[in-house]
């Protein structure tokens, strides 16, 4: 039974062919979000379904599984990945993980290991990872392994969707905003030197090409997701050339999207406004350092680092991780880390792979457990352990 499928993304970048276990030819074109399958030519079909329908019952078992690169990282990362693997196993999710342990603080870092991870990511094109902790000590290399991974894969866009969790009350409820961060240049360019003794120069790199690219990504995202406003975050009043170029690039791109409202705001005022009235924001786009700060601030508005998922995109690859990147080293081995953010990131990954049923199953189970309020980890005011929370999610998979 041979069937050809076309897998299309909203932004077509490349084509990859492979054969499944029955010999079916599959064309893979990667882009911003999940995939949609369209038959190109069919000799025989055993299953038909509406392409855009939301599955209410488990689909027929796939002939083969999706391979995904997994990098647990440091701190509680391995514990969180264990939760993901257990939930996927219980939910019969058709994903096979290629697991690699990469760490700069556990003597598990080398060029060979880094290249192995990169090879796997390039082959699979989808990965899920924990935080790879960056030591503050200078050991001859300024660029961390995290930064090198982003640059090697050109993961220029980091997306963090800050969404209030049903049933968990915070100072600001019903929040729904998106933070888009350029993460391949800016202050994290790893260009530092001591010009004279006691004087260190740290270079911030802003380019028109990458500023326009992240601005276009933000406006494309807003258009695709039906959002109405994009706000550029900057400090152009002080860094007149660097942030001035970023701001100018955003304004130029904004003219191409007349249906999307465009505003800009200075970074320090943005922080205050997020605390006072976050509802005024929809999609925010910003350079590297500001994005790192705003990601963490916004995560705190809805429950903290343990509940907000994130993802990073290049033209060809997608990496799913927590929205606020913390190793939470003090919790290692204590069974207290909140798996919510990593599980929601895993659910977003499944949606990207067009596994809508499984994505909804995992995300709804997580949200159902939190809404019920009986099993919550300490960061959400509860007493449950990581293992107890994971078991509760598993028990809600088929609820």
Automatic annotation (TrEMBL):
* UniProt GO cellular component terms: mitochondrion
* Keyword Coiled coil found: no
Which PROSITE patterns does the UniProt entry name for this protein?
A: IDH_IMDH (PS00470)
Q: Which SUPFAM superfamilies match?
A: Isocitrate/Isopropylmalate dehydrogenase-like (SSF53659)
Q: What is its main location?
A: mitochondrion
Localization, per the record, is: Mitochondrion
The terms under GO molecular function for this entry are: magnesium ion binding; NAD binding; oxidoreductase activity, acting on the CH-OH group of donors, NAD or NADP as acceptor
* Gene3D superfamilies in the cross-refs: Isopropylmalate Dehydrogenase
Keywords noted in UniProt: Mitochondrion, Transit peptide, Tricarboxylic acid cycle
A Pfam match: Iso_dh
Q: Name one GO biological process term.
A: tricarboxylic acid cycle
Q: Per the database record, which ranges form the Isopropylmalate dehydrogenase-like domain?
A: 67-393
Q: Which InterPro entries match?
A: IsoCit/isopropylmalate_DH_CS (IPR019818), Isocitrate_DH_NAD (IPR004434), IsoPropMal-DH-like_dom (IPR024084)
Keyword flag Glycoprotein: no
Q: How does it assemble?
A: Heterooligomer of subunits alpha (IDH3A), beta (IDH3B), and gamma (IDH3G) in the apparent ratio of 2:1:1. The heterodimer containing one IDH3A and one IDH3B subunit and the heterodimer containing one IDH3A and one IDH3G subunit assemble into a heterotetramer (which contains two subunits of IDH3A, one of IDH3B and one of IDH3G) and further into the heterooctamer.
Q: What does this protein do?
A: Plays a structural role to facilitate the assembly and ensure the full activity of the enzyme catalyzing the decarboxylation of isocitrate (ICT) into alpha-ketoglutarate. The heterodimer composed of the alpha (IDH3A) and beta (IDH3B) subunits and the heterodimer composed of the alpha (IDH3A) and gamma (IDH3G) subunits, have considerable basal activity but the full activity of the heterotetramer (containing two subunits of IDH3A, one of IDH3B and one of IDH3G) requires the assembly and cooperative function of both heterodimers.
Family designation: Belongs to the isocitrate and isopropylmalate dehydrogenases family.
Protein name according to UniProt = Isocitrate dehydrogenase [NAD] subunit, mitochondrial
Q: Which organism is it from?
A: Pygocentrus nattereri
Quote the gene name from the UniProt entry. Answer: IDH3B
């Amino acid at each position: 039974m041979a069937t050809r499928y076309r897998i299309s993304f909203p932004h077509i970048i490349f084509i990859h062919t492979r054969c499944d276990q029955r010999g079916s030819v599959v064309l893979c074109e990667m882009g911003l979000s999940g995939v949609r399958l369209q038959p190109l030519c069919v000799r025989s079909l055993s299953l038909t379904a509406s392409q855009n329908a939301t599955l209410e019952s488990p689909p027929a078992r796939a002939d083969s599984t999706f391979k995904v690169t997994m990098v647990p990282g440091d701190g509680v990362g391995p514990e969180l990945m264990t939760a993901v693997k257990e939930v996927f196993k219980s939910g019969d999710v058709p994903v096979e993980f290629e697991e690699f342990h990469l760490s700069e603080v556990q003597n598990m870092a080398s060029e060979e290991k880094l290249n192995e991870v990169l090879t796997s990511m390039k082959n699979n094109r989808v990965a899920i990872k924990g935080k790879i902790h960056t030591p503050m000590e200078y050991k001859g290399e300024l660029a961390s392994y995290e930064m090198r991974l982003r640059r090697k894969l050109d993961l220029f866009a980091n997306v963090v969707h800050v969404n209030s969790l049903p049933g968990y009350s915070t100072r600001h409820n019903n929040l729904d905003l998106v933070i888009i961060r350029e993460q391949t240049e800016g202050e994290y360019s790893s260009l530092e030197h001591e010009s004279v003794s006691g004087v260190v120069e740290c270079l911030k790199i802003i380019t028109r090409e990458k500023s326009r690219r992240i601005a276009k990504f933000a406006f494309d995202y807003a258009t695709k997701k039906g959002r109405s406003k994009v706000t550029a975050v900057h400090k152009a009043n002080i860094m007149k050339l660097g942030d001035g170029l970023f701001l100018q690039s955003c304004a130029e791109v904004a003219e191409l999207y007349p249906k999307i409202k465009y505003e800009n705001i200075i970074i320090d005022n943005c922080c205050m406004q997020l605390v006072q009235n976050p509802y005024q924001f929809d999609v925010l786009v910003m350079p590297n350092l500001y994005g790192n700060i705003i990601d963490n601030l916004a995560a705190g508005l809805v429950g903290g680092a343990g509940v907000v998922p994130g993802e990073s995109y290049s033209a060809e690859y997608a990496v799913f991780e927590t929205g606020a990147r913390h190793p939470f080293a003090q919790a290692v081995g204590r069974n207290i880390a909140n798996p919510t953010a990593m599980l929601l990131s895993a659910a977003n990954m499944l949606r990207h792979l067009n596994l809508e049923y499984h994505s909804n199953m995992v995300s709804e189970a997580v949200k159902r457990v939190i809404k019920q309020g009986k099993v919550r980890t300490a960061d959400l005011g509860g007493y449950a352990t990581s293992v107890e929370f994971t078991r509760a999610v598993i028990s809600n998979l088929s609820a």
